[in-house]
Design a protein that fits this description.
Helix 2 packs across helix 9. The protein has a 15-stranded mixed beta sheet that branches. The protein has a five-stranded antiparallel beta sheet with strand order 1-4-9-6-7, with no helix packed on it. It is of the alpha+beta class. The protein has two domains: 149 residues, Jelly Rolls (Sandwich); 368 residues, Alkaline Phosphatase, subunit A (3-Layer(aba) Sandwich). The protein is built from twelve helices and 27 strands. 21% of the residues lie in helices and 28% in strands. The relative contact order is 0.17. The longest helix has 32 residues.
C-alpha cells in the first residue's frame, strides 16, 4: 500500500495524450474576456443575474400550484440597457459555430424589450436571431429565454441589441436585459480536455454506501478513500472548503457569532459567505474553456454564499432525486460541444427521512417516530448538547425505526442515481467522475442525533471516490485525507493548472487534518488529526465564521427556516 499513492498519481498525470493538458481558449466569451465586447450605445456591465420563484419556501400565500422543477437559476451575464447596443469582433474559423445565450429581464423597470443579434461583415448586416421579452408587470413568471444563432463563416462583428419601440417608432427607456454567459461554441472532433462530473450527496455517512449497491459497484471501479475527514459537520463550510480547497478558518463561510459560552436557551444564528478574494474550483475549469454548471437542492448553497463564482449556471431545483437527475441530464446533453464540468448536489438522505416508494426497497417503511416531535422548530434554534440529547431521547425501538428510514433514503437514492451515473460512464466513458459527501449523520452512535453539533466519526467521516476508466486503477486507499483536497486533485488529474496555494493531494496521506466550525453550540469545537491520532478541540466563540454577511431574500430566509435553520 505504501507505493500505491505514487502509482495512482503517475497514472492520473500521465493518462492524457500529449497536449491535452493545455486549455484551448474559446472563440469569444465576453464574461471571461471583458475587453472583447464594446458598448456602441447605452450602458453595459458584467454581473450575475438570478431568476427566483416563490417556491424557495414551502408556505407562501401567492402559491396555488405545485412548484416547478427549477426554483432558482443564477447565471453569469452581460447586463445591457434598453436601448442598448454592444458588439464584439470575431476571428474567422473553419467549420460551423454558433452563439449560445439566454435572456431575462434583469431590472424592475416596466416594458417589453425587443432583443436581436446581428452579424456585420464589411458593410453587410444580417439579422441572426430575435426575441421578445415580456415585462414583469404583465404577471408572467420570471424566466430565462434561450437564444441560439448559427454564425456565418469568416470574420465579422457580432452585435447585441435591446430596444423598446415607443410612440411614433421612438426608442424609449426600458428594463435592463441580462444576456447569460454568451459564448461562441464550435464542434471539436476530439475534446481537448476530459469531462468532469462531481456528484455530491448531502448527509451521507461513510457506511451509508453499504446500503447503496449500485453506487458501490460504480465507485469500486476507481480509487476510494476510506478515511476521508470532512472539514466541518454541516453543509455550508464543508462545501466552501470543497470549492476553495481551504479550511473553514480561511474561507470564512459558515454561521455567525456564538455566545461567549454554551449557555442554555436558544440562540439566533446568522450566516457568512465565502471570502470573495479566494479562487474557487469552478473558476479554474471555466478559464480552461469548460461549460460549468451546478444543480443543487439546499438553501444553504444559494448564491448568497458566494459559491456560485465560476459557474455559468447555478441552479436550485426541487428537493427530490429524480428532478435533480433530469435537469442535470438535460444540461449535460446540451453542452456536448465543450468540455463539461458539472456539480450535481442531491439532498437525500437529509431530514426528513421520507424516501420515495421503490418496490422491494422502501414500500414497507415503518411509521416515522420523529413525526411526533416538533423537530423543525427545535432545529431552527440553537440549543446546547444536553438540550438536544434530551429532545431526541427516543426509546431504542424508535431509534431503530429512524435508522431504517435513513438507510431507506440511501437505498432509494441508489436506485435512481446508480443507473444515471452508469449511463454517463457508458455514453461518455472518458468522463472523470468524483463522488463526495459534505458530512454524515449521527444516529445515536454516540448518544446524539443528526449533525452540526458533534464531530463523531458518524458525522465527519465521509465517502470519497474518483473514477477514471482506463486511467485510474481500482483501489481502496486507507491513508487519512482531507475531503476538500478533492478540488486540487480533480484539477491535477484533469490536466488543468492549479491556483496558487492549492497543494492538497488525495494520493498523499494528510499529516494533519481537522474538522471545525460547528453549526450548533457544542461540547467540543472540533477535531484535529495528527496522522491517524485524533484529539478533540475545545469549544470557543472563535469558531464563528468571519466571511462577509450575506443579504438574504425573504424567500431564501423562509426556506432556511423551513429546513430547520434560521437566517440572520
Amino acid at each position: 500500500m505504501r507505493f500505491l499513492p505514487l502509482l495512482f498519481l503517475l497514472l492520473a498525470v500521465c493518462s492524457f495524450p500529449e497536449g491535452k493538458g493545455a486549455p484551448k481558449p474559446l472563440d469569444w466569451n465576453p464574461c471571461l474576456g471583458k475587453d472583447a465586447v464594446v458598448v456602441l450605445s447605452g450602458s453595459l456591465r458584467f454581473s450575475r443575474s438570478a431568476m427566483h420563484t416563490w417556491w424557495h419556501g414551502l408556505h407562501h400565500p401567492r402559491l396555488s400550484r405545485p412548484s416547478p422543477p427549477i426554483l432558482g437559476d443564477d447565471r453569469d451575464s452581460i447586463i445591457l440597457s434598453t436601448p442598448g447596443h454592444a458588439a464584439a469582433d470575431l476571428p474567422p474559423f473553419e467549420g460551423p459555430r454558433s452563439l449560445r445565450t439566454a435572456l431575462r429581464i434583469h431590472s424592475a423597470t416596466p416594458g417589453r424589450v425587443h432583443c436581436e443579434v446581428f452579424w456585420k461583415s464589411g458593410e453587410d448586416w444580417t439579422s441572426l436571431a430575435k426575441l421578445e421579452l415580456p415585462g414583469h408587470e404583465q404577471g408572467l413568471p420570471d424566466a430565462w429565454f434561450p437564444l441560439e444563432a448559427s454564425l456565418p463563416p469568416g470574420n465579422g462583428q457580432l452585435e447585441l441589441v435591446c430596444r423598446t419601440p415607443g410612440p411614433g417608432g421612438l426608442r424609449v427607456r426600458g428594463p435592463e436585459v441580462a444576456w447569460a454567459h454568451p459564448v461562441v461554441v464550435r464542434k471539436q472532433a476530439e475534446p481537448s480536455l476530459p469531462d468532469v462530473l462531481l456528484v455530491t450527496v448531502d448527509t451521507l455517512r461513510a457506511d451509508g454506501l453499504l446500503h447503496a449497491p449500485q453506487l458501490s459497484r460504480i465507485l469500486s471501479r476507481g480509487a476510494q478513500w476510506s478515511d476521508a475527514l470532512s472539514p466541518s459537520n454541516w453543509t455550508l463550510p464543508a462545501y466552501a472548503s470543497l470549492f476553495s480547497a481551504q479550511g473553514p478558518e480561511i474561507h470564512g463561510a459558515g454561521r455567525g457569532p456564538f455566545s461567549p459560552h454554551p449557555v442554555s436557551g436558544p440562540e439566533v444564528r446568522g450566516f457568512r459567505a465565502v471570502h470573495p478574494h479566494l479562487p474557487l474550483l469552478a473558476e479554474s475549469f471555466r478559464r480552461a474553456g469548460y461549460a460549468t454548471a451546478m444543480f443543487h437542492q439546499n438553501p444553504l448553497l444559494e448564491a448568497w454564499t458566494g459559491l456560485n463564482r465560476g459557474f455559468e449556471r447555478y441552479v436550485r431545483c426541487q428537493d427530490d432525486t429524480e428532478t435533480g437527475l433530469e435537469i442535470a441530464a438535460d444540461w449535460w446533453g446540451r453542452e456536448d460541444d465543450r468540455p463539461r464540468f458539472l456539480v450535481l448536489h442531491l439532498m437525500a438522505p437529509h431530514l426528513p427521512y421520507s424516501p420515495p416508494a421503490v418496490e422491494g426497497l422502501t414500500d414497507r417503511l415503518p411509521e416515522d417516530p420523529l413525526a411526533k416531535l416538533a423537530w423543525r422548530e427545535f432545529l431552527a434554534e440553537d440549543h446546547t448538547p444536553d438540550e438536544r440529547r434530551a429532545f431526541f431521547d427516543l426509546e431504542e425501538t424508535d431509534r431503530q425505526l429512524v435508522r431504517e428510514r435513513y438507510f431507506a433514503e440511501i437505498a432509494a437514492l441508489d436506485a435512481r442515481l446508480g443507473p444515471w451515473m452508469e449511463s454517463i460512464l457508458t455514453t461518455s466513458p472518458e468522463t472523470l467522475v468524483a463522488f463526495h459527501s459534505d458530512h454524515g449523520e449521527e444516529l445515536w452512535d454516540d448518544g446524539g442525533f443528526e449533525h452540526g453539533h458533534s464531530f463523531h466519526e458518524s458525522v465527519v467521516r465521509v465517502p470519497l471516490a474518483l473514477v477514471a476508466l482506463g486511467r485510474l486503477e481500482a483501489a481502496s486507499i486507507d491513508h487519512p485525507v482531507q475531503a476538500h483536497d478533492l478540488a486540487p486533485t480533480l484539477l491535477r488529474v484533469s490536466g488543468i493548472p492549479l491556483p496558487d496555494g492549492w497543494t492538497g493531494d488525495l494520493f498523499t496521506p494528510a499529516e494533519e487534518s481537522s474538522s471545525t466550525h460547528p453549526l450548533f453550540r457544542t461540547g467540543t469545537g472540533g477535531i484535529r488529526r495528527i496522522s491517524t491520532v485524533a484529539e478533540s478541540l475545545p469549544f470557543s466563540p472563535t469558531h464563528s465564521s468571519k466571511g462577509p454577511q450575506p443579504g438574504l431574500r425573504p424567500e431564501e430566509a423562509r426556506a432556511l427556516a423551513e429546513l430547520g435553520y434560521i437566517g440572520g
